[in-house]
Every structure is written in structure tokens, then in C-alpha cells.
Amino acid sequence: GIALFWLTLWWLAATFGVKQELLLPSPIRVLTRLGELASQGEFWIATWTSLCRIFGGILIATGLGILCGILTAHSRALRELLSPILAIIKATPVASFIILALVWISRGKLPVFIAALMVLPIIWTNIEQGIRQIDPQLLEMAKVFRFSPSKRLLHITIPSVLPYFVAACKTSLGLAWKAGIAAEVLSTPKNSIGKELFESKTFMETTDLFAWTVTVILLSICMEKLFFLLLRLPLKKSHTGGNL
């Protein structure tokens, strides 16, 4: 119902408001064009390539962010040493990173790097905070009952940190898509959604521009839904571990 409301509002604005497809095509025209694009092999090649690039960046940032979060949570000196890096990443505009990175990184790898760069500080800080917020009484209990390192990790650390990790993923997944596609638009690598968006804008193909934008939104939503679907099992286990 909500989706229908906004689609209707979009249709009314395009049909009775703007009345120019060059400026605002109707949702019916955009969906029709999206269906036409989806029937072409080039569409799926570009979509799959962009998906792999951005997903690769997310995986790299997640692994590196977890590692850095663990290290800085247990070392104040290391945390203070690396804090300027986090501050720089957070403060610098994405476009600046993209332009600077184009000097050293190939166009095909740039979206991976930018997606990873945007996700890294979010995962890093949340993992660090989650570890530092572990209840000291739980750690004391683990000592009293002589928990092994693996048992402490399974029943205390992971259940305590997992909510912070989930919150980081909720924020970073969408951000990775926006940053990754922006990197593709500016670098225009071969077989990419960003290149299609750039060419649609250059040749004033507004319907194609909207169709590719809808594709990005749908891919982002599907990736987020799939991620949290796969995360349900660890979440259920964490609740059990927390009760233990």
C-alpha cells in the first residue's frame, strides 16, 4: 500500500505536473524500460559486475573492520595511533576519495576500494565499542567457571558484540552501494551500472537514468534482505548463548 501510494504520487507528478518525459518520466514508462533492459544480456553483465565489485568491497571492509576493532579495543595506544585515520575517512567527501584514488587505482578496482573505504570505519568503530561494552560481570563469571577461550568467545563475546555488528551492517550496506555506484559513475569502468548511469545522463536518456536507478535501489534492498536472512541463525544462537 505504501509503495502504491508513492508510485501514484510519482505518476500524478509526471502526468499532470511536469508533463515532460525528458524531466520526469512516468513510473509505467520507467518500469517498461526496465523490462526492456532486463531482456538484454548487457544489462545482466553490468548488474552482476557492479554487484560483485560492491559486495567484494563490503567483504574486505567487514573482515578488516572486525580485525581492527578487536585490536583497538584491547590496545589504547593502537586506538590513539589509528584514530586520525578514522577521522580522515569520516570527514573527507566521497568524491574527493574517488578523484584521488583514480591516480593510483584502476577503474575496475576503484568501486571495490571506495565501497570498502566507506564501510570500514562503521564496522571498525562498532566492533570496538561492542567489545568495550561487554559486561564485566560476565567476564568475571567466565573466570570463576573457568571458561575456555572458545567458550568465552561463543557465549559471551559474540552475543555481546553481535547487536553492534548488525547495527553497523544496517548502516553500511546502503552506504556501500551509494559510494560504489558513485565511484563507477566518475570512473566509468567497463560493464558497470555507473557507466550506464553516466551515459544516460550524457545523452539525456532520462527514462534509462531512472530505470538504472531503480535497479540500484532494488539490488541494495535485495542484498540487505538476503544478508539479514542469513544472519538470523547466528542471532538465534546468540540469544541462546546470552541466556547461558
Short description:
The chain is mostly helical and 244 residues long. 84% of the residues lie in helices and 0% in strands.
Write the layout of secondary structure elements.
Blueprint: H1 2-18, H2 27-38, H3 41-74, H4 76-91, H5 94-101, H6 110-132, H7 136-144, H8 149-187, H9 193-202, H10 206-230, H11 232-243
Helix pairs in contact: 2-10, 3-4, 3-6, 3-8, 5-6, 5-8, 6-8, 8-9, 8-10, 8-11, 9-10
List keywords for this structure.
mainly alpha
What does this structure look like?
- This protein is mainly alpha-helical and 244 residues long.
- The protein is built from 11 helices and no strands.
- The chain has helices at 2-18, 27-38, 41-74, 76-91, 94-101, 110-132, 136-144, 149-187, 193-202, 206-230, 232-243.
- The longest helix is centred in the C-terminal third of the chain and has 39 residues, at 149-187.
- The two termini are 42 Å apart.
- The model has no long low-confidence stretch (mean pLDDT 87).
Proportion of beta-strand residues? under 5%
Largest sheet: none
In total, the number of strands is 0
| Mean pLDDT across residues | 87
- Helical residues, percent: over 70%
- The Rg value, from CA coordinates, equals 22 Å
> Order of SSEs, N→C?
HHHHHHHHHHH
What spatial form do the alpha-carbon principal axes imply?
elongated
Low-confidence blocks of residues = none
| First and last CA, distance | 42 Å
Class from helix and strand fractions: mainly alpha
Q: Count helical runs.
A: 11
